[in-house]
Amino acid sequence: MKNISATLATVWRIAIPYFRSEDKWAGRGLLAAVITIELALVAIDVLVNQWQNRFYSALQSRDLETFIREIWIFVGLASAFVALAVYQLYLNQWLQIRWRQWLTRHYLGEWLNGATHYRMQLKGDAADNPDQRITEDVKTFVEQTLSIGIGLLSSIVTLFSFVIILWGLSNAAPLHISGVDFAIPGYLVWGALFYAVLGTGLTHWIGAPLVNLNFEQQRYEADFRFNLVRVRENSEQIALLKGESAERGRLLHRFNFVVGNWYAIMSRTKRLTAFTASYQQAAVIFPYVLVAPAYFAQKIQLGDMMQTGSAFGSVQRALSFFVTAYRSLAEWRAVVARLDGFEMSVSSAANIAAHEPTIDVARAGGSTAVALQQLLVKLPNGRPLVTADAFAIQPSERVLVTGPSGSGKSTLFRAIAGIWPFGTGRIAIPERSRLMMLPQRPYFPVGALGDAVIYPAEHGAVSPDKIKEAVTAVGLPDLAARIDEEGHWNRMLSLGEQQRLGLARALLHAPDYLFLDEATASLDEPSEARLYRLLAEKLPQSTIVSIGHRSTLDAFHTRKVAMVRNGEAHVLGDGEKPVQAEPNGVR
To answer: Whole-structure pTM over 0.70, yes or no?
Structure first.
């Protein structure tokens, strides 16, 4: 019971924001329409139940006139039922897509807000495969919440509607055993209740493990799919290393978890289906067994008997809702648990500062430099990585950051960008200044090349001529003619070409502070030199801070700082002054 109440509380927390959102009136209206139609369908079921009594009584008495009239009445009821059922499905699907659209936008907004998605990875939270949570789980949650909710409401209304009918029929057809009538008020209702409670209890006992099994199945499937995507994205390196055999073994190992868990689901589903199928088949004959003695004793007519069977079936199905919907309920609870875990992970990553000290990255009015004050950058496990104090990067400086691999150079850049929360201290960024970080492997969204280059600017924010000019300037004239071509550019281009396009992006955005994290490491030294001279020519007012290991980079920077180990952490401080490049670019 505690688990059920917790699940319902979680469902309420996930579902209710939509019905209070900007789309609330449309959502509430569609939901009200679907519920109203469902109530109308139950009313038609009640009318059909009463119709059965008249129809079969007419058959028994061979009353042709009544028979024909009841046929026309049934045609009317059936037509109304079909029309209502069609529009209920249409409105239900309309509500589903509006609800799913809002929930998807909501989750995307939370997940992609303020580098939360990145912090979730750093914290290693349990919300695996956010892509599946936002796609499959949101879709399933909306569909099954409506299906189960409307089904439960229908069962409750059906139960109250037909209990009254079945109670009256119990008095009209008393329990008849061995020629003796037993006046038990509502005995058919009590029989249906006993039958349903017994079935529900046994179904839960047999099927309870399916909740966890379905949860694990989705996790294993998503993990297997994620690793397949990784193989596709790294196919060149796998081929070069001739790692196909190793990858096949790793993938099959992960797929074995899918198979093993599926066998467990099969075994449990077989037992559950054997019981529920037997239960449903027995439910067909059970009411007739109860009232047949009264019929053969001529206490009731055929119409009364058929109406009793129909009413009993309706009551029994209403009471047995959890039996027939158990598999759906198990899958639904697993989906709810996964979305709950995703929400908790997003909330935890977004609120790191509320639970532990973090680096304060703030815009400073009146300041013209990026200033690091009492800064201590840590790893997620709390180990110190970089320290810096009273360190400033002045406007228009060209700063080269050096140090051994693993000393925290890239992590320092992430802290300055405001996406690395682990640590203490303050980083002051000049107000209204624009920062851009270019990593060693730049990101290009799938789509037109021109849009990929100007990312994250919107389509049309930069004229095509300017994009072509920048792409040509970085040494890719052939690509300049293809800016309207769509593709997966991170897969289609070499890393050197990607780095050139990354610098073209910097030229187009012209940031006040440009941080290059080994952003030219895949280029040969002459090409690297030409691109640094291009940056100096096109972005003379921009401050450029580079991470690099090549000594040739000294020539293009006016200041050199180094990461020097001091105990557990590395201290950021000024090193020797680099030798400046001559006008022709030669030292």
So the answer is: yes
